[in-house]
Specification:
Length: 270
């Protein structure tokens, strides 16, 4: 009997520990997924000449700061949806490179990023990027056939979802994953990621419903999003692929390198 009681006690302790660990992961998972940098940020005009600070109003009433950089006689406008870390200040080199190619650029920060109110969720980011698009087609009167979407990593999931409802003239997905759970399983194979995740971001499932030209740019040495996941997204979208040899997920060449900028320019409407 004592040995049985000890065994039951040990089992109870193990179950309690597992429950606490999984409960903590479930409760705090969004702090592991979304890694925002806060504000305050400089004025857009101090970042790049001609830049404007703009406010995006979401359907649930949040007012989000963003930067709009208009190009003179712009060939098109690029809505940039960033990845899961940092804020729009880190995307200034990208905006500069696109401006140099005659493209206007909107850099938004999601809720909870760049000093914006709120906390990031999959549903919330969908509202944020809709507010960005509404600003461009409403206040700036950008025609839909002159609007391009560029999404980085997690942002690729955000603009893919947007494109299912509001197709752009072209869509560039940089380092897209098939879905968030697939990335989680790659990095945490010992956890039941699919059961724990609140936010799913099913890019591969949604991309087949996008009616716009798609280009997938990825690094062949990506240690965060496996290249095969990006290629799977491209296959489902029947997309053009641009492989950046030897590039890891956060390398500068995937932020504003010639392959990425060229992929955007190549989608310009005629």
């Amino acid at each position: 009997m004592p040995s049985r009681r000890r065994a039951l006690l040990t089992l109870a302790v193990v179950v309690t520990i597992v429950a606490v660990v999984f409960g903590s992961l479930f409760a705090f998972q969004r702090k592991l997924i979304y890694l925002p940098s806060g504000g305050p940020l400089p004025a857009a005009a101090d970042v790049l000449p001609g830049g404007r600070d703009v406010t995006l109003t979401t359907a649930d009433g949040l007012r989000l700061g963003a930067w709009f950089f208009p190009a003179e006689n712009a060939a098109a406008t690029v809505l940039v949806a960033q990845g899961n870390a940092g804020n729009r200040a880190l995307r200034v080199p990208l905006a500069r490179a696109l401006l140099e190619r005659g493209l206007s650029v909107l850099l938004l920060d999601y809720r909870g990023y760049g000093g914006n109110p709120g906390a990031a969720t999959e549903e919330g980011l969908a509202l944020d990027v809709r507010a960005a698009r509404a600003f461009l087609v409403g206040e700036e009167r950008i025609p839909q056939d002159r609007l391009l979407y560029l999404g980085e990593s997690l942002g690729a999931a955000v603009v893919t979802e947007l494109a299912t409802e509001y197709p752009p003239a072209g869509l560039v997905l940089r380092s897209p994953f098939t879905d968030l759970a697939a990335v989680g399983r790659r990095h945490y194979p010992f956890l039941p990621v699919s059961l724990l995740l609140l936010d799913r971001f099913p890019v591969a499932e949604r991309i087949s419903g996008v009616r716009a030209p798609v280009t997938v740019v990825y690094g062949t040495a990506d240690s965060i999003v496996p290249p095969e996941q990006s290629l799977d997204v491209a296959r489902r979208a029947q997309a053009r692929t641009v492989a950046v040899a030897g590039a890891d997920h956060n390398d500068a060449v995937l932020v504003d390198g010639p392959e990425l900028i060229g992929a955007v320019v190549d989608l310009l409407p005629s």
